[in-house]
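pasting for ref
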Amino acid sequence: MIKYPMTVQGHRALEQEHEFLSKTERPRLSQAIGEARELGDLKENAEYHAAREEQGMVEARIRDIEGRLQNAVVIDVTTIPKTGKVIFGTTVEIANVETDERVKYKIVGEDEADIKGGKLSHGSPIARALIAKEEGDVVTVKTPGGVIEYEIVEVAHI
């Protein structure tokens, strides 16, 4: 059985998406299918087929979310003592050794990843290089553009 690590915020977001899909989208699509059915011949009824297709996608997503929530391992990093070590859920400030350009990333579960929002999946190359390292360590990350070295400036439990 696969376990899905996620932050408290990520777990809450999945619960909210599940509630929206179950309580808003599911009834809306059911109504749309009913209305399309009333239009007559189902073989050539584009509205009916579109609504059925969308319903299938929504139901698949609901099942996916339910499985992820059922197998979630929620990690609240704010309850873990700060050691300066990068772990799941920490926010890490890193500096490119060559350019001194700094960025901050939060290490999160795959459902929460959003590079533009500063959230890295724990399975990404940068996150894998950072996890278990400490403030002051220099890590080497292989990227499509070549090898980059980063220094871990700060690890925060926020």
